[in-house]
Amino acid sequence: MSGRRLAFLGLGVMGFPMAGHLARTGHTITVYNRTPAKATRWMEKHGGKSAATPAAAVADAEIVLMCVGNDDDVRTVALGEGGALAAMKTGATLIDHTTASASVARELYAAAKAREVRFLDAPVSGGQAGAENGKLTIMVGGDPDVFSAAEPVLSSYARAVTLMGPTGAGQLTKMVNQISVASVIQGLAEGINFAARAGLDVERVLDVIAKGAAQSWQMENRGKTMAADQFDFGFAVDWMRKDLAICFAEARRNGAALPMTAVIDQFYSRIQARGGGRWDTSSLIRLLRDAK
User: Fold this and answer.
1) Could you give the CA distance from residue 161 to residue 155 in angstroms, rounded to a whole number?
2) Torsion sign across C-alpha atoms 40, 77, 98, 276
3) N or C of the chain: less Cβ packing under 10 Å?
């Protein structure tokens, strides 16, 4: 599947390395970023070319991949003035990696279909390290034939690419992921804080319990940095609160109860009030560590 003409829109902490994997696979890449300097840095590292607008970036692309901030950014980049969708070729595919709402995914699907463009919502999990190492998990919503055609390209930066159902199913699955992750982080924070106050060797505790039923990605990748009070990296609290707001909005529609998630979201609001909006989500332990 190398040698395709692709466009990548959005070169943040996730998009920058994801587009890099596509370039190394042998695809011809045109990138767009709201801040042109970042597109220039990407080209210096990976080659390819950049464009001043989403529309200019996608003009010749067979597949357009997008990873931006939120629903409003998705609409601006895909549907706004100079947006991608109106400039895409008939039969091309638009893939949105943004963590956004299921409703905006369905909105893009309808707009794409009206222009004879194919669409997949495909949010990712695995964080910056997963993007850099090409080990993301991608949850996809869309039509099976579109998924089958796009899967080899997505596999350039993923260890798992799974079709979850029709349009919006990828975003709904990512909501399940974020709901689950929030609770795991809070539980891990409480456990580490308990171990420290009990006078245990926290790193040894983590090494032991990681071999049993308590094991998780968060424990393996964040446990020791939590114990060391290190949070200047990773998935920002601001981003998690944005994602949880999407979960709450969907829960209001489908009637799901999210009592624990609501409590943890308020803990994250307290981290933001301390100036920790850009700290890693594992910073929840700060609230416990500082409690008297």
Assistant:
1) 7
2) positive
3) C
State the catalytic residue, choosing from 38, 49, 113, 174: 174
C-alpha separations of 122 from 94, 105, 244 in Å? 10, 9, 18
SS3 81: coil
Q: Which structural domain range is residue 100 located in?
A: 5-166
Q: Are residues 15 and 105 in the same domain?
A: yes
Residues 154 and 247 in one domain: no
pLDDT (tens digit per residue) in 146-165 = 999 999 999 999 999 999 99
Q: Amino acid identity, residue 41?
A: R
Residue 123 and residue 11 share a domain: yes
Kindly state whether residues 98 and 36 are assigned to the same domain: yes
Give tens-digit pLDDT for 111-154.
Answer: 999 999 999 999 999 999 999 999 999 999 999 999 999 999 99
Number of domains in the chain: 2
Give CA separation, 72 vs 78, 104, 185, in Å: 10, 9, 28
Domain closes at, from 146, 166, 186? 166
Cα dist from 264 to 156, 269, 290, whole Å? 34, 9, 17
Residue in the block written with tokens 């990773």: 234
- Phi and psi of 160, rounded to 5°? -150, 130
What span, in angstroms and rounded, lies between the C-alpha atoms of 101 and 193?
34
Q: What CATH number has the domain bearing residue 61?
A: 3.40.50.720
Is 174 catalytic? The answer is yes
| Rounded-to-integer distance, Cα 170 and Cα 30, Å | 25
User: For residue 208, with 0-12 CB atoms within 10 Å meaning exposed, 13-18 middle and 19 or more buried, which class applies?
Assistant: exposed
Are 210 and 153 found together in one domain? Answer: no
| 84 shares a domain with 199 | no
DSSP string for 137-165: EEEEEE-HHHHHHHHHHHGGGEEEEEEEE
- My answer on whether 77 and 155 are in the same domain is yes
